[in-house]
Amino acid sequence: MRSRATAYPLVAVLGWGVMFPILASALNRVDPLNLTTARYLLAAVVLVAILLLREGAGAFRHGGRALEVVVLGVVGFAGFNLLTNLALEHAAPQQISLFVATTPVITQLVRWARDGVRPKPLLLALSLVALLGVGLVITRGSLAGLGQFGLGGLMMIGAVLGWGIYTHGASRFGEWSPLRFTTLTALAGTAAMLALSIGADAVGWQHAPAAADLAAVAPQLAYAVLVGAVIAVLAWNTGVQRLGAANAALFMNLVPVTTFAVQIARGYRPEPVELVGAAITIAALIAANLAARPRTTPLPRPSAVTDPIAVTDPVAVSGR
Known about the structure:
The chain is mainly alpha-helical. It has helices at 2-5, 7-26, 32-55, 66-87, 93-100, 103-115, 121-139, 151-170, 178-203, 211-216, 218-243, 245-249, 254-265, 272-292, 308-312, 314-318. The longest helix is centred in the middle third of the chain and has 26 residues, at 178-203. It is globular, with a radius of gyration of 23 Å. The protein starts with a helix and ends with a helix.
């Protein structure tokens, strides 16, 4: 059963890993804020329609948790996606995706700060090992390149912190379906993105895209909406509910490795140290998930029943 549950975050991180190069190409025609807003306006329509069909209008009630939903939607959806798209203007996709690998550590620290649950030393150590492997993949064994990220790196630190808070928050909505939690937080985040984009357009910080620009990035937008914002997020929140926030977050180490693989498919030729880093990341991820599995002890075998009256005559038993 647990092996099936791991398929959900795996689908999510593979979808997101492919998305970084796709979004980077779309930013050549549409600015980050408007691209993110257009993406989630469309995604929100899809999610609302699915939620109505599956659970009905009653699923849109917040059940006294409206403030928590709004905060998580703004921090997770708006914060992570806006900051990521802005960061892609300052660094290459594979560089930006490196920061996503810090999500397991960030999520465990958020859980520690929020719930007082100390991360297991082994899980924390394996998360750091996986991050080291990702670092080898992206930097080709030279950490000196990390200092060149500048503003893009600072934005991604904020983005990953927001996603770590969102991931931890998702684990606290176990009584909600992943579809309901995703939709309601997406609506809150989309509202924040729309307000910010309108304000940025009004002051001239950015310019509303023309119809021709949106048409030019339609394929990228379709992938970002259907795969990145609907399928991947639903899969992610399902995985968080079934595996827990800390265990699901471990899969984020595969995002930069996937992005790196996409770049290879586009003609990039990796060095041996990069392949070693990818192997380290995957091995650490597998080890962390094996270590996180609860140990089960076999139930004691029932003793043989030697009293035939207790078996055949409950009245006789009660009369003793």
